[in-house]
């Protein structure tokens, strides 16, 4: 049975009838640009990313799921300990349980349990249990606080939660002496969220597993994006107009098979009389999950990424099929590095690839001397890029579909 695209599902087909015939190509493009992942994808992606951190750590690290300030306040009000400004290990316990209803948080919790075990003191390796006290962190020489989430679209929730840790005088002292880092690990993050988190003074590093799809990096031309944005605004009720492009107009395109973020365009989440919905508000419908079983978002067109880096001839070489798949990825990475300053995370967003795969490409390019460890292209790398621009010359006798023997009349 062939895999369906979102626009080919029963719900997708009904949802498209909300629009005029001339608007349906833009609506179809919006649907089929969605990035839909399963809890299993998140579980294994986070597990891989946390595991990859181990060589970077100088000691032990406590692994804590990211909570929203609303979750903290809800739990605090139940315990009658509401504070005007929350401080980790003082006004709340960062690893507290029962603060939120299990959803994607359950997947994050299962991943963390894989590394830390069931309770403090029973951990394997360098990972400390989320429920460890600040005295446990001191006694066991904790050198990093690893904050884990499945998805961040704006970075705001992560930044607000991370800020509660340096407010603790002891943790602030450890950080000032370079003895403690705060690291964010997420399955996926938008380019906007990554930039915001990297600029946050209370966070030292962010380690996403894979980039999150959004309007900003969708493979749409300017006219297509304009048409989709006009569609979102036109069919969003006046009272929800601020949500037309999702929370704070972030234009998210990522969702999971168990949860629907509020940064998706409102018309995808809309439920109102006379409207044929695609999603059940913030809930993923069971019938849609069944129809999209095995669905994966389309791969990024590498030639378009390279063409965006002003490497038209390299893009043509990729389109011609002259470069094999792995070569295409290497050349695309090299072209982007040559065009502008890059980081592993920015390359992952441009290429729509997991960061670990990008790290492997970068490692190879550094090893063969095409780029430096500081992400600068070398002379050898420029020569390789120049070679990639050269398309193979195709010679022909101009006798297609002619069964008669061909004898050349002259030699060059």
Topology:
Blueprint: H1 10-16, H2 24-32, E1 35-37, H3 39-53, E2 60-65, H4 69-78, H5 104-116, E3 127-128, H6 134-139, E4 142-152, H7 156-162, H8 169-176, E5 181-189, H9 191-198, E6 205-211, H10 222-234, E7 254-256, H11 266-269, H12 286-291, H13 302-307, H14 312-319, H15 325-339, H16 344-351, H17 355-367, H18 379-388
Parallel strand pairs: 1-7, 2-3, 2-4, 4-5, 5-6
Helix pairs in contact: 2-10, 3-5, 15-17, 15-18, 16-17
Overall description:
- By secondary structure, the protein is α/β, with parallel strands linked by helices.
- It has helices spanning 10-16, 24-32, 39-53, 69-78, 104-116, 134-139, 156-162, 169-176, 191-198, 222-234, 266-269, 286-291, 302-307, 312-319, 325-339, 344-351, 355-367, 379-388, and strands at residues 35-37, 60-65, 127-128, 142-152, 181-189, 205-211, 254-256.
- Helix 9 links the parallel strand 5 (181-189) and strand 6.
- Helix 2 (24-32) crosses helix 10 (222-234).
- The longest helix is centred in the N-terminal third of the chain and has 15 residues, at 39-53.
Brief digest:
The protein has 412 residues and is of the alpha/beta class. The chain has helices at 10-16, 24-32, 39-53, 69-78, 104-116, 134-139, 156-162, 169-176, 191-198, 222-234, 266-269, 286-291, 302-307, 312-319, 325-339, 344-351, 355-367, 379-388; strands at residues 35-37, 60-65, 127-128, 142-152, 181-189, 205-211, 254-256.
Number of strands: 7
Round the Cα radius of gyration to an integer and report it.
Answer: 25 Å
Largest sheet descriptor: 5 strands, parallel
State the distance separating the first and last CA atoms. Answer: 53 Å
Order of helices and strands: HHEHEHHEHEHHEHEHEHHHHHHHH
Q: Report the sheet-strand fraction.
A: 5-15%
Mean pLDDT: 82
SSE-based structural type: alpha/beta
Task: Work out the helicity level.
Answer: 40-55%
